[in-house]
Design brief:
Layout (H helix, E strand, L loop, with lengths): L1 E2 L2 E2 L4 H29 L18 H12 L4 H13 L5 H22 L4 H27 L1
Antiparallel strand pairs: 1-2
Helix pairs in contact: 1-2, 1-4, 2-4, 3-5, 4-5
Length: about 150
Amino acid sequence: MTFQGHSLFHSVLLAALALIVWSLIIWIWMYATRIPAMSKAKLDPQDARFPGSLNMLPDSARQVADNYNHLMEQPTLFYALVMVTYLAGQETGFTGALAWGYMALRVLHSLIQNTINRVPLRFLVFAASTVVLMVWTGCVVLGVLS
């Protein structure tokens, strides 16, 4: 399979698109758990107007919402790095692999948080994804400077 003359897993842009799709899937998962939990707790949607006002919901509903928020935090660096990589002409098989590796680690992080929610395991996956961003950033910086 190819995209713009490269193999599918060479493209940092497709890795970004995949993480966007995943984030939207988590958004659906969040509301599929949150709305029934709010209904069961007999909460008026207006009760959700302040941060922390839904803390009485079950963990299964709160952890998916927390994960959605996490997908709006550090991945902003990922999206910026995708654009810098692409625009600076630093898209290679290695940077593509790093982009897809980061995306896969974020999916794994979501699956851990939204199911078993073991913090040490989540942290390990989060730390690994951060190291991937660091290595990738270093590659792009070196490529731009050379």
